[in-house]
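Explain my protein.
***
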Amino acid sequence: QPIDMLVAGLGSAGTGILDQIARSNYCSSFVLVDPDKIENKNLRNQWYTNGAIGSYKTEKSKVVLQSCVPRDIQRNIEVYNSKFQEAPLHNYKAKYAIAGFDTIKARLEFLEAIMEKKIETKYLIDTRYDDLAASIYVIDVEDADQVRKYKAGLDEDYKAFLAREEERKLKENIQNFDQFWAYFAPDEDFNDCDEKHMLMGVY
């Protein structure tokens, strides 16, 4: 089934793009995918309102999409309250697919699904928000060079993320062991902190 736009992830990135598209007649058919319900924290930078808290993001986004055009214009909007891996997206052929995810890992999995033809689209749009900064990538999935460069960037970002996570966990472990040591052996004095951490099994 041909559609104009598939949106996977309806957080700040996904709704940020939809907020611009909603006010034009360029796209008339949408598939929206997101398993989450709206929380208070989402009101700061997403297009939901206070009264929508507790509702599915897909359902409220459908209402907003339809409300942004005159009453005589009807949009075809289908929603799935699930992860994109669990939605029957193989039934659609989208012109645009938006990767509105919170994590690099999800973006990599989305790209893999497109490359394996589990998701059909002409263009992949990846949006990333960091407070007032934003980046938008538009990838022609039939252009192998564009796809290769985009994936290489994602791989580098994912490696950097894993390294930061490992560093964070190491610091957390050291802090926990320091607290343990201070409680159970307050009279012990190690001048070399590395020696203490080795004895406690941190390294």
